[in-house]
Specification:
The chain is α+β, with helices and mostly antiparallel strands. It has 16 helices and 23 strands.
């Protein structure tokens, strides 16, 4: 999650506390035109997200820390620091990042739920990390322990910065920076931040103009450096983030690595999403930061074109990205298989990060449409309802023959040799409240419909806003707006694309029939005709304390068809209701391979509180009332054992 902007009161205080002595922190000019309201400024009281975030806090984070201890992730820092004897433990050159990502998630959790025991535990883990850091700031334990022996066969051994295409040294730094920024924001402590800035200073000394021209093999150091820049005001960090992006795809400067690493062209000339999907989406997020912070038109144009390629031609209906197991990569345009779909959980998370930045840059609801689709489907499908079993890939079909999950499994697993996905979920889940609200100096945005409350300063007034809703199961949202005195400003309510007959921007997916209902807005019980701008219903009025907006979104079950160029889905339909995509599971439908949609299929929805922690189900019936099939939310599949599953069914 992007750290809240410098306009946040808390963050300003923390910023001032840690600005280096003798160095004035630079004001970011230009900047993102829109400011997100940070997760720690939003109080969540939501039936859907709050239990999931609490399970992450009480189950996922502790279980992941325990796995790191069990698998030797913690020991590696002691071995690197000479306090323990032995060889590198683990099988990945980026095992250090598992620890960093869990710290990041735990830090976010501390902000919303104070926990002295967890706070002390984090300090003890940070002390271990400090032991593994070399005197000049270098921090990649496997190379410190023995650079002649790599933990993975695909990653060649070598000294510092050798083999950056696969060594993950800069990837390790990126997650270190992101975690340290989160820990500092949450606690105000600098113990982890000091480790991060020491490493960042080393990178500044090694890389950049007139120094090493090499770039990361796996991107994320760029956004991490920018977060450190936001905290410290050290312009060198921002400049290095841009340097790493500027140097990609330029064979005249260095040996390039091709499309897999998005290193085949200069980034500002790229217009198609290619290669490893997680690397790509992290890079696109960093490019969007550069577009905003430098007001760079070339970067802005590039991310806009790449986004259109993803959303118009390479996006799964679940918001997942990356169709190929081979290379964990994007496929060709319209290459969207179901059974063999990859859709790595990390890629869905990265897709959220990127789309949120694009919203902050452009102020268009279409980016939140994509974010929401990923959030309610492709992200939370990655973790079981128990909070301790996971998917690495997220296919749209399971036949119980193709072993899709990492390690060749047919079901969720508690850990992986490469456990980037479980630990990424640790850090992502507590950040969800930070995507609900946003603002400019004179307008307020409501992007997601989650029962919550916050305050924001609009034209010098602290305006409180709260939501009451049973979303995503119901479409009624009650918003209460309370300025301290009568204040005029525009309230921008997102009009979800699915509510106006467009499941996603572009023509990759469409509904078989237009909905019969439209969104309705009442203010203090009276209908209003809101102006529509960039996908928002804009209510511009003088607001008084306690004004109530009733926003009703049509929650019809819709049949979805894919563009004819998606060969896999010709003659097939899928189901969604609101932001939730549905699937059929064998446990509910023993004849799953014979299911289809008939011309007379009637669809009804009902909430079943005792099923899968409480979900809404869709039932398909024939005219005579006999049932054709029952569907559950896609995110909840495989929580009742390994069984067949389909998102897309043939149309009779």
């Amino acid at each position: 999650m992007q750290i809240n902007k410098l306009s946040s009161i808390l963050f300003l205080i923390l910023f001032a506390a840690c600005a280096p002595k003798g160095q004035e922190a630079e004001t970011m000019q230009p900047d993102y035109p829109i400011t997100g309201i940070s997760f720690n400024k939003v109080h969540l009281d939501d039936h859907f997200w709050l239990p999931k975030i609490e399970i992450n806090r009480t189950v996922t984070i502790p279980a992941s820390f325990a796995k790191c201890e069990e698998m030797g992730r913690m020991d590696n820092f002691l071995i690197a620091g000479g306090l323990m004897q032995g060889k590198t433990k683990g099988e990945m050159p980026f095992d250090d990042t598992d620890v960093y990502k869990i710290i990041e998630g735990a830090s976010y959790s501390l902000t919303t739920t104070p926990d002295p025991k967890l706070d002390a535990y984090l300090d003890s883990v940070i002390n271990l990390i400090a032991i593994g850091q070399e005197d000049d700031g270098y921090l990649t334990t496997w190379k410190t322990i023995d650079p002649t022996v790599s933990p993975a066969s695909w990653c060649p051994p070598g000294g510092r910065w050798e083999g950056l295409a696969s060594s993950h040294e800069l990837y390790n730094s990126g997650h270190l920076f992101e975690a340290a920024a989160a820990h500092f924001q949450a606690t105000g402590k600098t113990n982890f931040l000091d480790i991060a800035t020491k490493n960042a200073d080393l990178l500044v000394n090694v890389f950049g103009p007139g120094k090493s021209p090499e770039v990361p093999g796996h991107q994320i150091v760029e956004t991490g450096l920018i977060k450190l820049y936001l905290i410290t005001g050290k312009a060198d960090y921002l400049a290095l983030a841009r340097h790493f992006l500027d140097q990609r795809g330029k064979p005249e400067l260095r040996g390039t690595w091709g499309p897999y690493n998005q290193d085949h062209q200069p980034v500002t000339e790229q217009d198609e999403a290619v290669g490893h999907a997680v690397r790509a989406a992290y890079m696109y997020a960093g490019m969007t930061d550069i577009a905003a912070l430098y007001d760079d038109e070339a970067y802005r144009n590039a991310v806009n074109q790449i986004w259109e390629n993803v959303v118009y031609k390479k996006l799964y209906i679940t918001g997942g990205i990356g169709s190929r197991h081979q290379g964990e990569a994007f496929g060709e345009n319209y290459e969207l298989p179901n059974l063999t779909a990859y859709n790595e959980t990390c890629a869905a998370i990265a897709n959220v990060y990127w789309n949120y930045r694009l919203f902050l840059l452009h102020g268009d609801a279409k980016y939140i449409d994509v974010l929401e689709r990923s959030l309610y489907n492709g992200v939370i499908s990655g973790v079981a309802l128990d909070g301790k079993n996971f998917f690495y890939p997220n296919p749209l079909e399971c036949d119980r023959h193709y072993h899709f999950n990492s390690g060749g499994s047919l079901t969720r697993e508690p850990w992986f040799d490469c456990s980037c996905c479980p630990t990424n979920l640790c850090r992502f889940m507590p950040s969800v409240p930070g995507y609900i609200y946003a603002q400019t100096n004179d307008r307020m945005y409501v992007n997601l419909f989650i029962q919550s409350s916050t305050e924001m300063e609009i034209d010098g007034s602290r305006v409180a806003i709260s939501q009451e809703t049973n979303y995503p199961w119901e479409g009624d949202i009650k918003l209460t707006v309370s300025p301290p005195k009568e204040t005029r400003f525009p309230l921008c309510l997102r009009i979800p694309g699915w509510a106006v007959n467009q499941p996603v921007p572009g023509d990759l997916y469409s509904y078989t029939a237009a909905g019969e209902q439209a969104p309705v807005i009442l203010v203090n019980g009276e209908p209003v005709e809101a102006k529509k701008e960039h996908g928002y219903a804009v209510i511009d009025r003088a607001w008084k304390k306690g004004d109530v907006v009733e926003y009703s979104l049509p929650m019809e079950v819709k049949k979805v068809k894919a563009n004819e160029l998606v060969a896999e889905n010709r003659g097939k339909l899928a189901l969604e209701r609101g932001p939730v995509v549905f699937c059929v599971e064998e446990v509910d439908n023993p004849e799953i391979d014979a299911l289809d949609f008939s011309v007379n299929t009637r669809l009804t929805a009902a909430f079943v509180p005792e099923l899968l922690n409480g979900v809404l189900t869709v039932t398909a019936q024939n005219d005579d009332g006999s049932m054709q099939f029952a569907a559950i939310p896609y995110y909840a599949w495989n929580n009742r054992g390994a069984n067949k599953m389909k998102v897309w069914l043939p149309e009779e």
